[in-house]
Design a protein that fits this description.
four-stranded mixed sheet, 10 strands, disordered N terminus, 219 residues, four-stranded antiparallel sheet, 11 helices, alpha+beta
Length: 219
């Protein structure tokens, strides 16, 4: 696999995929953050093949983080693993994002020829941030949201996935829903019924609705 990076301002919409729990947090805190550093962006194996623009060369160390966006709004449909992990899509105004401190920086992944011909090539935009910083007032950059239906939320076991990666988010929600501690402990052991999934989904759905950002639901 080889990578090419080039500086460019991409006008129109770009997309960020996440899950319903993280989307709720992004909207509640009105900021988008990342712990991924620029030095994590590139495998050592491929560094020689990468054509880095000056801004990447300057900040390619652990003092800077980055947030990924994609130009492919249908990415999860083409990569099933992503589809099961990131069931929400945030549509951003790339013109506004390009005005941030370090702007938008484009990366194209040129994989093996047969993969590109099969439609597996993927391009993305990254926003570089000073370490510890976030994109504040993130709602002002959002055009619309696409969120899963309850059926889809249950189909992809969103509660089990968040227990695996960030159970504190789920605990906070269950406490807000006045679930007793014993019940919460059982849920964290993956012992829960469909009505609990519905309670959690509606909690997240109603919070997202209160953000007053246009959204659509998909199955």
């Amino acid at each position: 696999m080889s990578y090419k990076m080039f500086e460019a301002k991409y006008l129109g919409s770009i997309y960020h995929f996440t899950n319903l729990f993280y989307l709720n947090n992004i909207l509640k805190e009105n900021k988008l953050c990342s712990k991924r550093t620029l030095s994590d962006l590139i495998d050592n194996e491929y560094q020689e093949d990468l054509q880095k623009p000056a801004i990447i060369l300057k900040h390619l160390n652990s003092s800077y983080t980055y947030i990924s966006f994609t130009r492919d709004k249908n990415l999860p449909k083409r990569i099933s693993m992503i589809d099961t992990l990131f069931t929400c899509r945030i549509d951003f105004d790339s013109s506004k994002l390009s005005n941030l401190k370090y702007g938008l920086n484009s990366i194209s992944y040129f994989k093996k020829k047969e993969n590109v011909q099969s439609g597996l090539d993927e391009s993305e935009e990254i926003i570089i941030l000073d370490k510890g910083k976030c994109i504040d007032n993130i709602k002002s950059f959002i055009l619309k949201l696409k969120i899963p239906s309850l059926d889809r939320f249950q189909k992809y076991s969103e509660i089990s996935k968040i227990i695996d990666v960030n159970k504190s988010l789920l605990i906070e929600i269950l406490q807000d829903l006045n679930y007793p501690s014993e019940k919460i402990s059982n849920i964290l052991l993956y012992n829960y019924d469909s009505y609990i999934e519905e309670d959690v989904y509606m909690y997240l759905f109603n919070n997202i609705k209160k953000s007053n950002i246009a959204f659509e639901i998909f199955n």
